[in-house]
TrEMBL record:
Protein known as: ferredoxin--NADP(+) reductase
GO molecular function: ferredoxin-NADP+ reductase activity; nucleotide binding
Gene: fpr
Domain of life of the organism encoding this protein: Bacteria
Keywords carried by this UniProt record: FAD, Flavoprotein, NADP, Nucleotide-binding, Oxidoreductase
Organism whose genome encodes this protein: Planktomarina temperata RCA23
């Protein structure tokens, strides 16, 4: 698909794979979500990511623009009409310093090649699924929580989300509310979905990194879950580098084995995710 768009310069450029922004919501001065139109030909599995971006400013030397692209998890389910994304805003970030200013009607580049490891195909069946996230790492779970397969495959679905402060938890709180009211999965979610948010800096009802409350037993005590093992539990992890490394160690100590699309296992981590 090709279309013409005017960016920061007066010269119209041809934007490849252009999609139109339909909705933008800002949560804090460092977090926002947006929706774009979905290309009719795009098929993806809930939990996957795509490359999203904008054209760079004109290079003063070459006089050219180039696409600035980053991996973004699709934060809406595979059956949805539009595509949702959840993003940080970095003042000097090459892409997000520009992307944070998008408005409905603007265009973004969306490369229609979804990939990723946070998919049902990469996990073997079990009783419970855990979604462990920090910050914008919750995005792929915004897709998987509204995916019917999640509730078909598991008796219990546990979403943990750790952020520095309460304002950063808002996207997740709204997500859980919407999921429980969803026409497709709402009823199942009401009986199966458990939401476990924590803050690490601002005081809240539950404080501490998820890794800390997991290792000291608080998480299991709070959820009244006696055991955690490779037979009953499956996990998906998405967040900061530190979360990924620490969760890998913790899950493997419980005997869980890492899975992949080609070799389903007990847990998966999104390595492409940065933030
Ligand atoms: P903390 O405030 O203790 O660093 P960031 O804002 O830096 O991207 O981090 C997002 C959230 O992830 C914060 O609440 C942060 O906690 C938490 N976090 C960072 N590293 C880890 C880790 N290794 N394990 C668990 N949570 C982590």
């Amino acid at each position: 698909e090709q279309s013409t768009v005017t960016l920061t310069t007066a010269t119209p450029v041809t934007l490849p794979d252009a999609q139109t922004v339909t909705e933008v919501e800002h949560y804090t001065d460092s977090l926002f979500r947006f929706r774009v139109t979905r290309p009719a030909s795009l098929r993806f599995r809930s939990g996957e990511f795509v490359m999203i971006g904008l054209m760079s400013d004109l290079d003063p030397v070459t006089g050219k623009q180039k696409p600035l692209l980053r991996a973004y998890s699709i934060a809406s389910p595979a059956w949805d009409d539009t595509l949702q994304f959840y993003s940080i805003k970095v003042k000097d970030g090459p892409l997000t310093s520009k992307l944070q200013h998008i408005k409905p009607g603007d265009q973004v580049i969306l490369r229609p090649k979804p990939v990723g490891t946070l998919v049902h195909d990469a996990l073997t069946p079990a009783k419970r699924i855990w979604f462990f996230s920090t910050g914008t790492g919750i995005a792929p779970f915004a897709s998987l929580l509204r995916e019917p397969e999640t509730y078909e495959r598991f008796e219990q679905v546990i979403l943990t989300h750790s952020c520095r402060d309460l304002a950063e938890l808002k996207f997740g709180q709204e997500l859980v509310e919407e999921t429980k009211n969803d026409i497709l999965v709402g009823e199942e979610a009401q009986s199966k979905l458990i939401y476990y948010p924590t803050t690490t800096r601002e005081p809240s009802a539950k404080m501490g990194r998820i890794t800390t409350v997991l290792e000291d037993g608080t998480l299991f005590a709070d959820l009244k879950i006696a055991d955690f093992n490779a037979e009953n539990d499956r996990a998906m992890v998405c967040g900061s580098m530190g979360l990924n490394t620490d969760m890998k160690r913790i899950l493997e100590a419980y005997g869980l084995r890492e899975g992949a699309n080609s070799d389903p296992g007990d847990y998966v981590i999104e390595k492409a995710f940065v933030g």
